[in-house]
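Continuing the batch. This is chain 6 of the set; chains 1 through 5 are on the previous pages. Same settings as before, nothing changed between runs. Recording input and output for traceability.
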Amino acid sequence: MSRIGGAFPFPIAQVAEGGGVITLSSGGVFYPPPGEWLVTTGNTTILQWYDPINQIWRSVQQPAVQGQYISTDGYNYRLLNCSGIVIGYNITAAGTGGTNGIGSVATGVSVVVGAPGSGQANQTATAYPVVGGSVQAPTITQAGSGFLVPPNIVIDPPPPGGVQATAIASINSTGGISAITMVNVGAGYTASPNFWIMPQVGLYAGGPSGGVAAGAIPPPGLVWPGNAVPGNQNIGPTGAQLTSQPLTGSGTLTGIVSLTPGATYTGTTIPSVTISGGNLVGATATPIMSFSMTSVTLGSGGSGYGAGNPPNWHSSIGLVSIASSNNIYLPRNATGVTTVTGGAVASFVVEDPGFGLQKVPVIAVLNTSAIAATQATGTAVVGGVNDTSLLQPRVQ
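Output for chain 6:
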């Protein structure tokens, strides 16, 4: 008897046989087999969904979250252990002279990330460049009127592989748009995008609340037809009108997009990023890391720690850049306890390794009984940790 081979062993282990316990090492990836599942992520593992339009992995579930239902074909969802990996890049100098485009083939530019060190489990992160194609805030040609709250602003996407631009609106006292602020200028656009204006309700629109009439549907706010989503908005020639401006960033490095996050990076192997080729001169970048605590090295044991509970400790969040990805990558402090011998701290025990630490954090020892005469100190050791998630078949 024969079968068509695939990405998974056959037969798939059942949950009762241990098949629902998914343990991943640093940077480890697991694609749930086809079917419907209830996912509980581990302390450092996230759930991601593949966006086929933008051709990127989008993070949809934080670590340590229960009860996410997914329906997968075996390839469109994955679990990723985000400890000891590269989660993004800060462009520290955009450079000049490059060829606009997305990826190394179009631009001639290569992005090379340093390796985490030698070892069979180590994996080097990879990424590709985006040159040019950033979006300016539009001109407010007409402010419009009647908006109860700032409308949602949606921007056309770039070509596949580019970076989506995002923006928010502010309104004035008469309900007109007073400002558009770019949150992310995006990268890789080949033409100035359209800005879509979507009025939002100020009150619950399903019924009256507290004697106040329900919010109107569609919500108030007059929009010029060229900026309106057909069929669900109030439109008119005097409505809010946004006019796109020319793209910016031509010839400069406007984005670095992660292909693979690598594995087993540590606080002592934060990689370099080398950008070269394609006539792009002077561009530089640094990686944004995601670490967890592997141990704490005892510095000074301090003195005067009295009888009772040994002191606890916690770390800073080691934040370098705001890269929370809708709070999926929201850093979490590492925490733990200590052991005390002769009134001095003898060792640090890690209870929660933390998540998303972007650099080696600072350790603080917290008194839980008598106030110490001299404070104990420790040095954090960060990298990748093993993490276990749970996968349970969904019962209809």
